[in-house]
Amino acid sequence: MVAQxxxxxxxQSLVPLLYMQLGSxxxxxxxxxxxxxxxxxxxxxxxxxxxxxxxxxxxNENLRLHHFIEGCRFNCxxxxxxxYVFIRTFSPVMWNE
Length: 97
Description:
Layout: H1 2-7, H2 11-22, H3 25-53, H4 59-89, H5 92-95
Helix pairs in contact: 2-3
């Protein structure tokens, strides 16, 4: 149970946690990749089911639901991109200037 909670914490802390658990950097990266693919697949399947189950909505409501799902997609991927760009662009040295 604790291991599952740790796996769901953050993609940034996932690799070090898996490394501690698996003892291999490559195994940790491989498992983190698998976990990320599992979550993305689950999200996409759920989004498709949600859109399908609400297909009888008025066109305007269906469009709003589609926009909401797209917003969730961009929120998740945008957060990861922002962290990557922020860390690469703003090094700790900047904070000491």
